[in-house]
Amino acid sequence: MKPLKIAVAGLGTVGMGVLTCLAKGGEALAQRAGRELQVVAINARSRGKDRGMVLDHIPWTDDPVALARSDADVVVELIGGEGGVALDLAKAALSAGKHFVTANKALLATHGAALAALAEKNRSALRFEAAVAGGIPIVKAMRESFVGYGVRSVRGILNGTCNYILTRMEATGNEFADALAEAQRLGFAEADPELDVGGGDTAHKLALLASLAFGTAPDLAQMSVTGIRHLTYDDIRFAHEFGYRIKLLGIARQMPHGIDQRVQPAMVKIGTPLADVDGAFNAVMADVGEAGPYFFEGRGAGAAPTASAVVADIVDVARGANGPCFGVPAAELSALTPALPDSRRAAFYLRFAVLDMPGVLAEIAGRLAESGVSIESMIQRGRSPGEPVAIVMITHESPEPAVARALKVIAASDKVLGNPCMIPMETG
Amino acid sequence: MKPLKIAVAGLGTVGMGVLTCLAKGGEALAQRAGRELQVVAINARSRGKDRGMVLDHIPWTDDPVALARSDADVVVELIGGEGGVALDLAKAALSAGKHFVTANKALLATHGAALAALAEKNRSALRFEAAVAGGIPIVKAMRESFVGYGVRSVRGILNGTCNYILTRMEATGNEFADALAEAQRLGFAEADPELDVGGGDTAHKLALLASLAFGTAPDLAQMSVTGIRHLTYDDIRFAHEFGYRIKLLGIARQMPHGIDQRVQPAMVKIGTPLADVDGAFNAVMADVGEAGPYFFEGRGAGAAPTASAVVADIVDVARGANGPCFGVPAAELSALTPALPDSRRAAFYLRFAVLDMPGVLAEIAGRLAESGVSIESMIQRGRSPGEPVAIVMITHESPEPAVARALKVIAASDKVLGNPCMIPMETG
Predict the structure, then answer these.
(1) Quick check: is A335 in a domain?
(2) Are the C-beta atoms of A387 and A314 separated by less than 8 Å?
(3) Residues paired with residue A312 on neighbouring β-strands, in sequence order
(4) Most C-beta atoms within 10 A of its C-beta, which of A50, B155, B230, B355?
C-alpha cells in the first residue's frame, strides 16, 4: 500500500512530539498503520529556531495554508487558536480533499459543525482525539464505544493547570495566587493563565464531549462557565471537613427538557474516582445508563500524551477510518436545547464572609428559607474579634436558581463581605 | 445505504442484552452506524424458553453453524467455549466472508491467530471488544489508540467474580469459601467457579491484551497462572497493615529479553487506582512510556456492559472498520518469547504458618538469606499457646525464582505448616 503522506503545521511542543513519535515509530508503527507514514511537509512561524531535531530533510513551507496544496494526504494542524490561520488551513485542507487531524479544541468548539460538514462534503476525515484530555482516548470512546446505550452525562477534569493548582492549594495551604505562580514557574501554567483558570479551555473541551455524547453541534454559547480564581484555601479545607475535594469539572448532562452544559468548581466526594485525580492529570467519567459508568484517567497535556493522540488519529486515517467526526453526520447534528434552569438541582456548599455581629446568621438563614432553601449542615469558625467570620453551609438539594437568588439578596446585606461562594456537591 | 444484517448465536444474558440494545437503539443507533441494523437470524439451544422478549418475528435457526449460510453480513457469537460450536461457527462464518463479532475470550485466546488469518484472507472483520473487561473499550484503545508510543505493560483486574470475592473478604472478614458462597448466592459467581477463581478467565483475557500490546499471537501456554483460592483473610488483613490491598491481576510486560505474562494475586498500594477498584468492577492500567500511564475502570460483566461492547463492534463493522483484529496483520503476529525467569524481580509478601517453637524464625530467615533474599519488614502475630503462628514478611526486591526456591526448602521444614503464601508487591 502507498505511504500516507503527512503535512504538519505548528512545531511547538506537540508538533515536535508528533515528528519525534513518527520518526521513532518506524516499522512497528507502519505495521499498525498498514502503510508507511511519511512526513512530506512542515511549517512553523520561525524556520531558524533550534528545535532539538534535524528537520532539513523535510520540505519546509512558510505559509501554513499552503500545506493544503502540498501532496500530503493528511494535514495535521498544531497551531492553535479558534480562528485565524488554523481555521484558514482547516478550510483549505478539507476543501482540497485532504484529511485533517488537529489538537485544536478552540477551533472545533467554535467551528466544529461547519468543518464537519465541509469534511463530509469532501469525503475527508476530520479527527481531533488530542483536543480533549490529551492522550486519553475519550473522543474515540464517546464516538465509537458508548453508542449502544448512549451517554447520559459526561463529567471531566479536563484542564491539567487547574487541577494542578487545586491539588497544590490543598497540599500546601497556599492561596490561589501563590499556587498559580508556582504552576507558572514549573511550566504547568501559561504566562497568561486566563484561558485555563477562567474555565475557557475546559469549556472548549466540554463542548466537544457534549457534541459526541448527544449528537448536537458543539455549542459554547449555551454553557455556564465559572473558573477557579475565586476559590480560597478555606474552601478547600472546609470541603475536606465535609469529606469532599474541589475539582474544576466540565459537565454535560441530558436533562428531561434539554442539555445542561457547565464548567464550574464542584465538590467531589473523597473516595470516588474523580476526587483522586491528582496534579496535572485529566479524567473523564461517562454515565451510559445500565451499561456504565466508565472512568478514564491519564495525562491530559504535554508533548508525548498529546502526540500519542495525534498519531492515533493519523493511524486511523491510514487505515481508512472516515466516519462522521462527531459520531453522527454533520447534517444531522441537532441544535443544542439548553436545560431549563430550574431542572438543575443539587446540594450546595455556601461560604459567606460576615461581620461578627448579632443577627447575621439569622439573616442568612432567613433569606435562604425565603427562597425555599434548607440547610443540611453548618460550620462557623475563625472567629477573632473584629475579623470577618466564615460561615459555611451545605444545603439540602435545591434548584440552583433559588440558591443563586437568595445569595444575591444576602450579598447585598451590609453584614456580609464580598460575594458568597457557591459550589454544587456532585453525587456519584 | 443498505441495512447491516446481523445473525446472533446464543441468547443467554448477553445475547438477550444485544437484542434488547439493538431493538431499543432505533433511529439514534442507526445514525451512529450510518445504516439500519437489522437482526435477520437468531439461534439458541432451546427455542421454547421464555426469554422475556417476543422473538417470533426474527427467523430462528436450530443449528448455529447454519448462521454462516444465512444472508447476514455479520455473525455475532455469544455461545462461549474455546472450541466446539463456537469455533465451528467462527470458521464457517469467516470462510463465508461474513464479519464475526464475539465476546468469547476462550475461543480467541486459543485460536485467535488462526481466526485472524482466516478473517483477513476473506476480508472479514473479526471483532471482540466484549471479550475483555466487558464494556470498557480497552481492546479498541490497545489496538488503535496507544500505537504511537506502544504499550510497555498492561495490568488489569479482569475478573469481576474474583474482585468481588476479595472485596467481600476484606469488608466482612470472611474466608474465601464463605465469600465465594455469598458471590454464588448473589449471582456474581458460577455454580462451577473454577474458571474464575482459578485465574483461567483472567488468563484468556490477558492473552488477548498481550497480543494487542505486543503484536504477538495470543499465547496461553507461556503464562503463569495462579488463582485466589489459597488466599486467607489474614493475608488481606496483613496487606492492609502494610498499606496494600490484594487484587487478582493479569499482567503482561515487555522485559529486556521477552514478554512476561502472569495471572496472580498481587499487592497493590492503597491510594493507587487499581487498589480502589471495588466489587465486580474491572480496570486496566496501560503503561505507554512517556505518553502514559492510562487507567480505565468500568463494568466488566453483565448484560448491558457486555452488550454495549458487542454493539460497538457491530457499529464499527457497519462503518466499514476492518483493520487487523490484533492491530497487526495476522501473518505478522510474532511468536511470544517468554521473559527469562530471573528477570522477574519484585518485593514479595511472604506468609508462613509455623509451630511456635524456638528457632523457627532463624530457620526461615536463614533459608531466605541462603537464596540471597533479604527482609525489609516483618510482622509476627496471633500467638496463642499450642496454636500455629503466622509470620509475615516483606522482602527487598529479589528475583522471583530465588524466593520460590527458598520457600520450597522452608516448606519442607517440620516447623512449617502447609505451603507458604507468596505475593508480589506491585509498584506504580
Answers:
(1) no
(2) no
(3) none
(4) B155
